[in-house]
Amino acid sequence: MAKEWWDVRHNPLIAMNPVRISYVLDVVKQHTRRQRTEEIISSDTNDLEQTTTTSAQQCGPLAGFKVLDIGCGGGLLSESLARLGAEVTAIDPSVTIANTAREHSMESLDSRLSNINYRGGVSVEELALEYNSADTGDNSKLFDVICVLEVIEHATNPEQLLAAASSLLKKPVPADNNHPDDGGLLFVSTINRTPKSYALAILGAEYVVGLLPVGTHDWSKFMTPAEVETILKNVDGFDGGGLTTCEPVQGMIPRLDIFSQTMQWGLNPHDTDVNW
Question: How open is the CA angle 220-249-15, to the nearest 5 degrees?
Fold first, then answer.
């Protein structure tokens, strides 16, 4: 599938990408605003708004953020994050696919994309081991944002994958420190294990419409929001017993645009039966 990553006829993630990026950006903005407000309590709100806006206009809203894209595939998410100013590291277990992503980014002649650090043949577990073995206790070496989008449904051991991803997040720093930090943000998106998801994601997408190759998904590997949340609450390395959910779970709902004949995606907190 490496050659078809940027072909909208073969890759449904292309239509899904704008809503994913919009959600990530909104949550990061909220998280950053809360943190900066705590840091600059004495500052006027208008000054904070002006400073944030000016910085975003000059460098991009994710300027200064270290972002890890796990299971980057052809680089759809990685390129979008880089265009927003992020310093992106993108890993994929497939060397071929990562090389395809790198080539696509280099073809754009956009320096923000050519700076993406693509690493093919590297799992998140291996990356975590690499970072941990070189640990200097410097929180700044870790990631502000980690994205695990449409990945864990393909993982042999999702618990291990999420634990490794969590270990690469920046850790919270207490407010009494000179440089307080709420810690990093982990974004997870996958497919729920429901009868509806089997009907749409497997029977519909693979067998009826042929949008994906047959065998792309295994329904038994789909995970509910509660299952993922339980895993994350129990990861090691965080005070208070793991990660906490900072935003309500959102479902991702597709609809067919009759004019363009393309799928358009939106968020719905009341429907997490398939993509969430």
Answer: 75
Note the Cα 166 to chain centre separation in Å.
12
Residues whose CB falls within 8 Å of the CB of residue 94, separated by 6 or more in sequence, listed in order: 2, 120, 121
Number of other residues whose CB lies within 10 A of the CB of residue 163: 20
Of the chain, the end-to-end C-alpha distance in Å amounts to 23
Stated pTM of the model: 0.87
Question: Which pLDDT score is estimated for 70?
Answer: 98
Helices (H) and strands (E) in the chain, counts: 9, 7
Single-letter amino acid, residue 262 = T
197 φ/ψ angles, rounded to the nearest 5 degrees: -70, -35
pLDDT digits (tens, 9 = 90+) for 88-130: 999 999 999 999 999 999 998 888 999 999 999 999 999 999 9
Give just the sign of the alpha carbon dihedral 263, 100, 154, 90: negative
- The single-letter DSSP state of residue 204 is I
The three-state secondary structure class of 243 is coil
